[in-house]
Amino acid sequence: MLHSMLLTLATAFMGCGGSGNDSQPAEVVISVSPEIVNAPAEGGTYAVNVTTTGKEWGTAVGSDFFTVKAQNTAAQTGTLTITVPANPMAESRSGAVTVMSGSARKNIIVSQAAAEAPAYDVPEGYTLVWQDEFDNGSELNAADWTHEVQGDHWVNNELQNYVNHKTPKGNLVTEISDGSLRIHCFKEDGKVYSGRVYAHVNEGWLYGYFEASIKLPKGKGTWPAFWMMPVGNDWSTNPWPKCGEIDIMEEVGVVPNEVSSSIHTQDYNHTKNTQKTHAMTISKAEGEFHKYALLWTADEIITYVDDKEQLRVTKTKLGSGHDQWPFHYAFYPIFNLAWGGDWGGMNGVDDNALPITMEIDYIRIFQKK
After folding, report:
1. Is 245 part of the annotated catalytic residue set?
2. Catalytic one of 158, 175, 211, 250
3. Is the pLDDT at 8 greater than 60, yes or no?
4. Catalytic: 258?
């Protein structure tokens, strides 16, 4: 009886690939050299050799501070090129590249040393979370930026038509050129065209330090701005100004070189002449780059011009209710160049000033860890 049971089990085991030509496939083995990449703060480019016993291989990147290019992925040997840019922060960083072949996985660790000093002069404890230096391509990255499309007199009785990148004749209202974003305003077939763009309009950021370097245009009728509005707002239940608005920088050409910051809420807004605002005149705001910034926390909003404080408002002084302080959800940044309107055209406009251009050298956003 025992002999019969053993014979049956042995036969069953052999039938499942335990002998003969029905062997299990060999486990895939991946080798990489080197397994660790240590980059200095200045960055660099590194080659990693990949070998697999599988038929092909691929990669998955677990960090966004470096880029990876794979070669010969359809063969058993290949190369990874890992490019690490300079680290702008006084903190080290690390990530990983996963090499995949069949069910096998092998990690390559990528580490980078901290910069000796922060590349950016920002409040202590804040870390860069997003930036656009406008140094790639010739137009805005559609994954980051959204163009507004609206006709003239849409808001504030402004005279420009906002279009998506190009006018009907193909002229550009926004372009990337010489390391800056340029928003153009001009006439075409009797109509004025310009650009209004939103950064990460569907996500935005809740609190942080927001900074941009901007060169303003000249001319009676200009109204450039750098400002913020709430993400995904329901205008039927939370209309302006109840929803809140943060104006980091505005200037009108009829008052040259005077830049201002304001906030608007249900209780504090310009329709009631209760808005909280402050203006200062600076040398050559029109024609030269200046730095405009916002420090926004749960309890305070402070704006700066070239690191000098412009406007400071606090929840303690204004009130903590939604009608006084609606700044408790994510907002997205906006750049636009308006022409005319209730403020920009308060003393008329000078069409001879057209065409005009607003230039943005960069926008950088930092948040507390």
Report:
1. yes
2. 250
3. no
4. no
